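so my prof wants the structure for this chain in the tokens format not the other one, which i didnt know existed until like an hour ago. anyway here's the sequence
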Amino acid sequence: FVLGCAVALTAPHGDLLGSHRPGCCAQIVFAPPDQVASIAPQMRRSATMHVEGYFNARDVSNLRPLRQAQSIYSQLLEHDRNAEDPQQLIETLGSAAEVAALLGLDSQAERLFGELLALPTCSHDRKLASQPSCAAYAGGKLAVLRRSAGKTSDSAAAVEAAKAKGVTWTEALQLPPDHLSGLYARAVWPAEDVPVARRLAEAFEDIAEEFKRLEAAAKRGKRLKWQATPDFFLRAQGSGKWDEIMLKGGSWEREPCRVMERLCDLLRDIREIVGPGQHGGKDLGVPGRVAFLRMSPGTVLRPHTANWNGRLNVHLPIRVPEGCEGSGCGGIQVGDEPLLQWKLGVPIVFDDSFVHAAVLPAEASGE
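here's what i got, hopefully its the right format
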């Protein structure tokens, strides 16, 4: 495994498709075209519940809820394209495009995000569900999909189309849907310039030693266990494994911090972790998070961006596969920067609002 302590100095906003509240998926709805208008609200609720069921399960291979949602959205799109409700059309297009992307149907997702961005009503100041900007959301998703497909010029065109609608991006590959203006933009930061990274590096040996107890407790599985990350859907289908033990989300987790007492104490007084994010004197209400993350050989995380540019990620590798010192074991690709390779005890600091991806090749062996 590649295993490390990851610290996000703030946390992202929610995603487009719901709050992931616990709930059961409703039965899929097939409706004759002449009846869609009368039952559209129920169909939308059903599709949302299917998607929430997918996120609640945190299982990237469990595609049935997404396929059910996709079927409903395809029916709703036929109706909404002919209805006189522009806000509803952009909501349905956004949801249908997101589901297609989650299913790995990149060509379909690209087409739908392209249709959404082209709508006059999809402007920078038009909100889309929990997204503050329709144009930034659609343009960013479209640009990432096209870039992943090798369509560099088309990707750049999507960025320019979004900026023409008022999106405030200033860097070609920094494409968060919620862009805070006036912040310094840098894809990769020198670890020595980030106090949290320096503190983690200095404590590397203590962290690695203390982690052994956490790992043993997780193996017993009574109070602690590895769980799929909240961003589990970024893992390419059929690839490896990616999970975490959370130390701090909205608040510090009692049991992990009981075992990792020194690490939690080391970070408790850092304002960027324990305090809410602020910008322009405004409290963003988003705390930092701390977790141990691990990837198994063969894991691929698809290109993506964070929802906003108000945080930095600090990764401290505490275990890497044998022979991975230097090259040959993948790493994190951020923007157009050189590949960030995992090196034991050496922090990596990057801005995840830039397009980024990660891979640990299947050939990697050991733990």
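also thought this was worth mentioning. The longest helix spans residues 36-57.
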